[in-house]
Amino acid sequence: MVLESYLNFFKKMVYSDVNKTGGWRTFKPIYDHDRCIKCGTCWLVCPEGCVVRREGFFQPNYDYCKGCGICANECPANAIEMVLEEK
Amino acid sequence: MLFVRCKECGAKLSASRCFEFKLAVNNLPDEELLSYGHRACSGCGAIIAVRLALKASGRDVIVVQPTGCMEVVTTPYPETSWKVPYIHVAFENAGAVASGVWRALKVLGKKTKVLVIGGDGGTVDIGLQALSGALERGENITYICYDNEAYMNTGVQRSGATPFGAVTTTSPAGKLSFGEDRPKKDMPHIVASHNVPYVATASVGYPMDYVEKVKKALSVEGPSYIHVLTPCPTGWGFDSSKSIELGKLAVDTGMWILYEIENGVEKINYIPTKRKPVVEYLKAQRRFRHLSDDIISKIQEEVDRVWERILKST
Amino acid sequence: MRDIVEGSRAVAEAVKLCRAKVISAYPITPQTHIVEYLAEFVANGELDAEFVRVESEHSALSVCVGASATGVRTFTATSSQGLALMFEVLFIASGLRLPIVMVNANRALSAPISIWNDQSDSTAVRDCGWIQVYVETNQEALDSVIQAYKVAEKVLLPFMVCMDGFVLTHTYEPVDIPDQRLVDDYLPEYDPPIKLDPENPVTIGPIADPNYYMEFKLVQDEAMNEAKRVLKDEDEKFGEIFGRRYGLIEEYGTDDADVVLVTMGSLAGTIKDVVDRMREKGKNVGLVRVRLYRPFPKDEIVRALKDFEVIGVIEKDNCFGFGGGALFHDVRSALYGKSNAKVIGFVAGLGGRDIPYWDIEKAYEMCYEARVKEVPDVVWIGVRDWFRR
Fold it and tell me: Which residue spans within chain C are E strands per DSSP?
């Protein structure tokens, strides 16, 4: 019984994706896919790791994007713009 | 080849447009072994270092972490961001805990890598002894020190890695003080003097260089150490979008030197053809904004002196 | 196999028999021989283990934490300042529920610095969440290490075997070193339910805010209480296989005793001799030796002591600011509301001060006196007055 409680502590652990950090944002990155040169920089430097990379198509996951602006700042093609998010 | 040299435009480092860079980035695995939803500040440089380290390591790794920003933001019970095995014990014993993990793996005949990811406080100050012991014993661990140059998690107090002139809450600028009055502890050379096979410095401003170095460190038998500069928007005082940019600027001004020491032989990885003036780096951060021209000149002189020595020896 | 060995050797033999896989310790008198023997065993191939020559006791225990969390059996040993240095890790090892076994060679704490035996080091950490056992003989030290692994791995709590420094560690006594096959039968391979393994990633050591922390502690507390029953059972099973059992407490001459002393550790051996001598002279005295100290065997203590008029608790430690030693306070607390006994605390043997039989007789005499008149609650025995002049 005592061992069970200890094991339950582990059973109750969940991955942090239950925490939708997208709610932290003030600014939102908007990706211009026509300007994108598909270098992968935005995917590489995102602190959240929330830029989806699929067959050369890059798009942030807005549920988790904190709007830090690093992707926009680093994009060599200036394809990302930080826009004030209306709530 | 550590840096991606663009044959088209001749740019030396991570020229984002160049084909080889693109290839290297696209070759990194898709899998995020660090789940999003963690509590790192928006724009945190250190969490980038953690995420990229796991891209380099893959799944077959056990992460050991001392108390610090990264530990606190990734493990608030019952949430965890770690999709690899992870252990946090205390602040100053990551080196010892990692030694224990590796010895156990050795006993069990497993090849899993042991990766420590610790902050500057838990490495160069309170964690120095345990790390030194682990290095001296030749434990097969890889130690990444993410350096945000202060005890950030407890509210930006100075550490042995806080650079000269920086303002922190325990080295504030006031009538009688201009901030941190001691130079930064030279941790990579301290590590190298333990006769370890691989030591390297890195910066998240040059992320692919960092990733390659982590891969190299993980492949080495015996202790390896990477000291990576991870700008902190909250503690250093700059806009969250500039973390990578400042990581690059630190290198481009010559204030952060990218080098490796392999089996005692030191090699500078990148010699900027024309170093940007340090004032560009300093004025971009609130922690240095108060510095007088006098002190800024002193800092520039010191950087120039160091590079003169480097250039003479190469 | 019977042999005449010093206590350190007996313990090392036990660790070898238990097939500990990661041994990590830092030298400190009087524990040094324990790790030296183990280093020899490893160097000779007699013990297949990783021997980690750490740079401090804090790291010694931290190495055990890392190794135990990865799923192997670990061992460390220390004393006094070393135990004090690993203070924070003691709590963590228990909080992380790791079945690390440690032998503490009881030694006085600085300052002044002393290398000699007393019980202040391990009693100072009595509430850190480690199971604590105090042994009387080298044989018991050996046997308790084996029992320690069995119990620790069942309840998932770390286990400290306390043995008096020099008095046991460096004294030769005849011991029976059990057969490896019997130990293998008694102690199966360590297979924890939770460990660091890429096949099954877990996060060990999270930060727990006020909404969660308390329940971790509650479960830890429950496990400690469970440990009492488990030790009792495992000690009996041990008795069946190896022919020796120790129980949680030991009673010597208490059936018809007028007064009784309570103690822990090797001092019990001396007191047993005094009991025999005094009984020859017609004084019916008795002894209760507390073997399991944490979790404290409250029920057993109450049953054994409640009907006595006077109980003297004699130990080698002192609780500064309250007076009297840790065991004294625990005995008093256990008897509260359950007995009318007068409990006297005797502080003796600090810093390795010898406790000769006449001082123990004095303690018994004082207990007799206490039946008829007022005596102080706490008495320091064997103190000299060289400093008052």
Answer: 2-6, 22-24, 50-52, 74-78, 101-106, 131-134, 159-164, 172-176, 203-204, 249-252, 259-263, 285-290, 292-294, 310-315, 342-347, 378-380
B1: containing domain: 1-30
| Total structural domains within chain B | 2
Q: Are B239 and B90 within one domain? A: yes
For residue B2, the model assigns a pLDDT of: 41
- Which tens digit of pLDDT belongs to each residue from C216-269? 999 999 999 999 999 999 999 999 999 999 999 999 999 999 999 999 999 999
For chain C, say whether B107 makes contact (Cβ under 8 Å).
yes
Q: Are residues B122 and B173 in the same domain?
A: yes
Whole-prediction pTM: 0.96
Q: Which chains does A contact via 3+ CB–CB distances below 8 A? A: B, C
DSSP structural state of residue A18: G
Q: What are phi and psi of C244, to 5 degrees?
A: -135, 130
Residues in C closer than 8 angstroms to A2, CB to CB, are 155, 219, 222-223, 226
Residues B211 and B299 in one domain: yes
* Contact C211/A at CB under 8 A: no
Q: Note the pLDDT of residue B18.
A: 66
CATH 3.40.50.970 fits C2-242, yes or no: yes
Section B164-176 average pLDDT = 95
Does B90 share its domain with B7? no
Does B88 contact C at CB distance below 8 Å? yes
pLDDT at B126 over 90: yes
Q: Which residues on chain B are in Cβ contact (under 8 Å) with A76?
A: 16-17
pLDDT at B1: 34
Residue with tokens 């053809």: B273
Helix ranges (DSSP H) in chain B: 19-27, 45-57, 69-74, 94-108, 120, 128-136, 187-192, 207-219, 243-252, 278-283, 293-313
**Count of pairs with CB atoms under 8 A, one residue in A, one in B:** 114
CATH 3.30.70.20 fits A21-84, yes or no: yes
- Which of A6, A7, A12, A19 should one mutate to test binding to chain C, selecting the residue with the greatest count of C CBs within 10 A? A6
Q: Across chain C, what does the average pLDDT equal?
A: 97
Say which residues have a Cβ less than 8 Å from residue A28's Cβ, sequence separation at least 6: A62, A65, A67, A82, A83, A84, A85
- What pLDDT sits at residue A76? 85
Residue C148 in contact with residue C159, Cβ under 8 Å?
yes
Q: Do A2 and C203 touch (CB under 8 A)?
A: no
Q: Are B47 and B38 in contact (CB under 8 A)?
A: yes
Domain identity same for B84 and B231: yes
Residues in chain A with CB shorter than 8 Å from the CB of C206 are 13
- Backbone CA torsion sign across B50, B52, B53, B55: positive
pLDDT at B15 over 50: no
Tell me if A16 and B245 make a contact (CB, 8 A cut-off).
no
Q: What percent of chain C has pLDDT over 70?
A: 100
- Neighbouring chains of C at 3+ CB pairs under 8 Å are A, B
Q: Which residues of B fall within a CB distance of 8 Å from C54? A: 96, 99, 133, 137
Same domain, B69 and B202: yes
Domain ranges of chain C: 2-242, 249-380
B3 pLDDT above the threshold of 50: no
List pLDDT tens digits, range C40-95: 999 999 999 999 999 999 999 999 999 999 999 999 999 999 999 999 999 999 99
**What topology does CATH give the domain C249-380?**
Rossmann fold (3.40.50)
Measured in angstroms, the CA of B80 and the nearest CA of chain C are apart by 7
Percent of chain B with pLDDT over 70: 94
Contact A12 B78 (CB under 8 A): yes
On whether any CB of chain A is under 8 Å from the CB of C192, the answer is: no
Q: Do domains C2-242 and C249-380 have the same CATH topology?
A: yes
Residues B122 and B271 in one domain: yes
